[in-house]
Amino acid sequence: MREHDDSPVVGREPCPDCGSRDNLTRYASGRAYCYGTGCGRMEWPDDDGEQTTQSSRTRMASDLIQGEISALRQRGISLETAKHFGYKIGSHRGQPVHICPLHNVDGKLVAQQLRTGDKEFPILGDFSQTPMFGTKLWSKGKKVVVTEGALDAMSLSQIQDNKWPVVSLPNGAAGAAKAIKSNLAYFNNFEEVILMFDADDAGEKAAKACAPLFPAGKCFIATINGYKDANEALMAGASRKILEAMWNAKVYRPDGIVSLSDIREELDRPVEWGLSWYLDTLNKQTYGRRKGEVYCVGAGTGVGKTDFLTQQIVYDMYDLEKRVGIFFLEQMPTETAIRIAGKHAGKLFHIPDGDWTKEERSKALDELTESDRLRMYDSFGVCEWDVVKSNIEYMHHAEGIEIFYIDHLTALATGQGTDERVELERITSDIAKLAKRLNIIIIMVSHLATPIGKPHEEGGRVSIRHFKGSRAIGFWCHFMFGLERDQQAEDETERQTTTFRVLKDRYTGQATGLTFPLNYDHVTGKLYEVSPFDSTPLAANF
Questions:
Q1: Residues 353 and 491 in one domain
Q2: Whose CA is closest to 291, among 38, 507, 25, 527?
Q3: pTM of this prediction?
Q4: Which of these, 48, 266, 312, 325, could form a disulfide with 395 (CB 3.0-4.6 Å)?
């Protein structure tokens, strides 16, 4: 019986055996065949019109086909290598195919993997044992290399005069872990196992899935520099790179474990200042802001945290010429833009009776627009962290933004039925990991819990424990700042003075406990640093 005929294809369906979405091809004759790797399910109508099914799991050696050993010149594989592995050229269903022999651990030929011109890989025979290519040739040794495909295995073997153990997976990266598990008894006969999978996402994922299956120190990961796989390197005349990859393979370690050699290049980098703050004292004490770090600001209502943020944003845009991403979750983008333009111009554009003209506001907005350094998130009441996170990723990758501002953290904890503290801890952890992964700076605001005693708006001292979600913020943030101001003080100077307090400094620790005063200019709307002994502005901070 032919597995299918030349009748027209009428559709592609999910395969009940392998679970593929559309690899089961249905023909007009009523026959069907699954082209999924490692499957081979067949269906055909019998004489009574009933549908008969044969799973690949029940197919036997009688299904195997014959062929002739030949050099694979287009692939750089010699006749000697093809003969060594028993790799043949033949015909299947009227079209030429490569025939890759698959042996079980006892050396018995049990299956064949075919390779068609359309790069389909049907398997004939009994695949239930997940046999591997090349296992018949080597039963034990010091090391064995495992590749994804037969052509890669033969390529590596060929440049070693076919003397050293090389095997390949029977069905590529998709079934790598299953194949390794089924052949662990075979691999136990070798001191070292080197995984030389394809240099792509699938190959890397497969290597990470397979490596933990071996005892600690036994598995090594090899990557061919500049090439996807061994056969590609062979055809490019880069045999030396294949050997270098094998001999320089790195022992597998679980994620999170590194050696000094892994980070040696980073260790040699010069220690540099980070991106500067607009406040001179803060900048000197913290050595600036470094990518991958998270900064959190906490203050009572009306104390000046928004002024601090917007003034820093203006400094980033105009002095540092950096693009910034802003997530002010309780403020419309129009209001945010007006305030930022005002900070830039030194005018209170958001106040109707402020000392400004229509022309001045228009000029400041034109300059803000022309700079093209500002991106804002219009939440429309949607403040879920997962949405904000995806927007940050987009702004970073598509817009090249490296500095982000979030006001405020508490607004992101909107999960219904979820404890706010638990949600804040999850979000803060995610923010820190995002900053590290994208190598960006995130500056965020946290609301404060009501303190025992004097309120923050009346000069009450801010401490870490007042931050909502303080446990997570204190753990994940690199720096924490608190702003304090007594809005009810009888002395006017005291009412207008904000104390800036450094609550946490993970970088050096030396800034923790630092306090310095900031005054607010009612004309310009700017916070400026003053001497602790008088009200004289410090040198050129803006």
A1: yes
A2: 507
A3: 0.58
A4: 325
